[in-house]
Target: M14 family zinc carboxypeptidase
Amino acid sequence: MKKVHKALGTSLLAAAVLLVPQTSLAEGPKPASGETLSINGFIDYAEMNKTLTQIEKNSKGAIKIESAGKTNQGRDIFTARVGEGKKVLLVESEIHGNEKTGTVALLNLLQYLGSSQSNEAKKIREELTIVAIPMLNADGSELDRRANDMDWSEAVADFPQLASAKPSWNYYTKTLQGDDYASNPGFDVNRDFNPDLNYVPQAKDFPGASNQPGWFITPESQTVRDVYKKLQNEFGRVDVFLDLHHQGFYKIEGTDEDVTMSISAQFVPDPRTAQGGKYAQFAENYRYDYSRQLNLALYNALQAKGSSVFSNISLYDQGLDLPGTALGSFALNGSGTVLFEVKGQTHSLGQKQKGMLVNTVETGIMGILNGVADGSVYNLNPGDYERIPNRVNP
Model:
């Protein structure tokens, strides 16, 4: 597929492109032996708290900061709410603690949305209610690692019915990306979600697998679930859910150009198809076309910046079945969903290219916010999503 350097409109497409999930991790360049990659340019937990306090103050009531819960190590998980519209958007960053650009981007956008008197910011505040979780996995962020900081015995203490169960498959107890989980284990929080938002952990469901639902055994996933449910109760539905991540290093298919960010609208098989039949109970609420439109709004916003690294956007792997992710679970509950995956985690890139990657995330989010606020997202042809270039291993 040739790279597309322009926004995708509403033209009819000949056929959808079937994507095969990648089975290997494109790690890309690694630091030299003994080299420590700096991450000082990112925001740590204490700095985030101070920044949120200042953003709330500067907004003069437009933004409300609250603690929605606590991490396993007792750190507050903050939410920031802005806007008074009927369309609800929930966005989270750092569910993996070594994926930090989204946190910076969200703080920058909150400052703008809370304080700007521009027509753009006013329109977004009028049409949308935005709830942001800038740093979900604060324990992992402080350790600069993917997983949270939690032992299996702590999960069993919270849920005694799991005493006879084997630890969940997403429980890290070995060295991963240079992190010693053997002496300080933890869970991949983004595999701990369940489409049944009222699910209570049962021993028979462990250890589970990547294509099976999670369990809400970590306080971090429980917090997101609770925020989501409260918004459902208040508004009837969470219209949009955005999840901000990092990935390895890939190329745009058919080119020598590096992928700056991969995006996706698909995390579970469509419940309305035979392949997704096991999710049939969620079919009525599933909004795959809307998810594709949201991804197109993001993609078009970045293509509008012209032929540059900002336009090097690819599709993440399609054909996935990941109900244990926040994206998979919330998609089945009726949200339009968008995955952001910028290149390079902190163990492989540090803070290099931070400014460009943060700008990429900000531009993509604003494309979605404006598209939902002015209604233009609904005019996009969902089928054009299939024309976004694929990512491939270099």
